[in-house]
Amino acid sequence: MNRYLGICIALLSAIGAMGNAMANSSPIELKFSGTLLEKQCIHDSAEDAYRVELPLLSVKYFQHYGRGPTTRFALRFKDCSTATLNKQVQMVFHSPQVVNVDGVSMLPTEGGTGVVLGLNNAYGQPIVLETPFKAGVITQTGIGSSNELFFEVYPLVIDRNDVNPGEYSATVTFEMSYL
Known about the structure:
InterPro entries: Adhesion_dom_fimbrial (IPR000259), Adhesion_dom_fimbrial_sf (IPR036937), Adhesion_dom_sf (IPR008966), Bact_Fimbrial_Adh_Pro (IPR050263). Pfam families: Fimbrial. This is P pilus assembly protein, pilin FimA. Keywords: Signal. It comes from Serratia rubidaea. By secondary structure, the protein is an alpha+beta fold. The protein has a single domain, classed as Fimbrial-type adhesion domain (Immunoglobulin-like, Sandwich), CATH 2.60.40.1090. It contains 2 helices and 9 strands. The chain has helices spanning 2-24, 59-65; strands at residues 42-43, 71-78, 88-94, 99-101, 104-108, 115-120, 133-137, 146-157, 173-178. Strands 1-2-8-6-5-4 form a 6-stranded antiparallel beta sheet, with no helix packed on it. A 3-stranded antiparallel beta sheet has the order 7-3-9, with no helix packed on it.
């Protein structure tokens, strides 16, 4: 029994001596590092602009129906950082001009045709320009990853009697954030 008591006292003394040695040693550094990304995802386009072509329609079509068919399109993003995995993408579409048609914000077009453009989210619900909305979720990350966010656009004439032939176009810009 005395032998076990002696061993325990010796062990406690050794542990105490180690604690004193650690307390008297120089401080240990703890370093933190990180990386700032210019963009969390890269827009997958060879150019700065993305062009969506709408179907060719006649003046008579618009005079009869007033609205053209919906064209579905996707904005693609690649090489998303791992920090964006499963993050909700919030977007805002910006336009220097907005026309309100029956409570829906629409894009006026250039070209004098009388056509305005409506934008919808992937579920066919109108996008309110200049207002943040949830556009989708990032599901793929890393080099070579690709994510698509889907939208719809459609042409509409405000006055069926004021439709003119010709080309029309409108431009929006967008911002993204991750929630």
